[in-house]
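Hi R.,

Here's the chain you asked about this morning:
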Amino acid sequence: MTTLKFGTDGWRARMAEDYTFDNVRRAAQGFATYLKAHALAEKGAVVGYDRRFQSEDFAAAAAEVLAGNGIAVWLTQRHTPTPVISYTVVERKAGGAINITASHNPPTDNGFKVRDPAGGAIAPEGLQEIEAAIPSSMSDVRRLDLDTAQAQGLITLWDPDPAYIAHLNRLVDLEKLRHAGLNVLVEPMWGNAAGWFPRLLGGGSTQIHEIHAERNPIFPEMQRPEPIRPNIDVALAQTVARGADVCLITDGDADRMGIGDEHGVFIDQLRVYALLAYYLLEIRGERGPIVKTISTTQMLNRLGEKYGVPVYETGVGFKYIAPKFLKVDGLIGGEESGGYAFRGNVPERDGLLGNLYFLDFMVRTGKTPSQLLELLFEALGQRYYYDRIDKRFPLEKRPATLARIQAARPETIAGVPVTRIVTLDGFKYELGDVGWLLIRFSGTEPVIRVYCELTDESLIQPVLQGGLEIAGL
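And the predicted structure, written out as tokens:
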């Protein structure tokens, strides 16, 4: 049978090829074995899912396997945002969670995420242990059908929303936002956040308008539910057409976020990360470590220096961020994909809370999103620019391309001197005070990514092309 490999954030595959009911059941058996080995099985587990094709059925299949292993399951009664699933693990004091979602992947895919007792991503060594425990044959998968498991009390249909909403109220003043008089456009990308902002902020002077809020697993008007352009171009145009003050964006499972300003201009995810960190440090007056991946912004390092807080850098993925975030009691942790974790919440990306914090930033300062960005650059004394190129990449070409990049030792890229090469995750070429270029293979799909952040906007495309040349692309 198919060998299941867990990447940056669990296992993802094309439905009806590798992503089948039997393979989901095998993955669930591996997770059940892992829970037992770590004395977590008696705590039970949470199982949730997104709005992709048949996700509720794949979730039921996973829950049946956990029940077959004698593990009590809280199965969410509807599609549920990933941060809500993660919080439910903590609220229920469960041993972990299975989340059926492919997040921002194309509509042909689905996925299988796992979470630890803290609601965060499981560290790489734990993922390897789960992989090793996945049986090669269905004969080794224990399973108890859904109706029988419910009758025996092993599977409970669960509404996790009330506890999570009460939790949000402790972190941000929802009543204040509800009556702030804002005009907000919400883009949930056909995903799990649909209905959440009207529910949280409706009933006051703030107006909430949603688009793409129905369930539609083919994700019309976008290539995939990833909160970057061109997927969000329709939302940005609607922001201007409706005269909205801001566009709040969440990806397919609502753990990632994006922001469009009042002019319909996308504020990229590196700038959003820096804005949220600045909000916590300057506006809320909080202090604590910043945890970031190698692929995200140097603005965080400048903020760390300015406010006297440490900044820790990890490999890409919350399987690296979450353990470090917990270890250092991080104030904020995040990555280039638009996923950010916050102190007081679970060590998981939370697109709902992140967007609420951004609204609170606007309300507390009385500034528009574009004005907030100028406020940030003024505090940093410098503007920063970012872009990336993704290339679909056959797996069979990876060894030769990897060897080519390893052998390359460029002294300059687009005429800019290379001051250091970091290989923590991929190949990062530091370009002194000008910025950086990163080349790495995606951990979730067959893609090679070339990213850069620079203080000179005119160099962005030349540096990206230099990265493609290094990779032979």
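The domain at 385-470 is CATH 3.30.310.50 (TATA-Binding Protein).

Let me know if you need anything else.
M.
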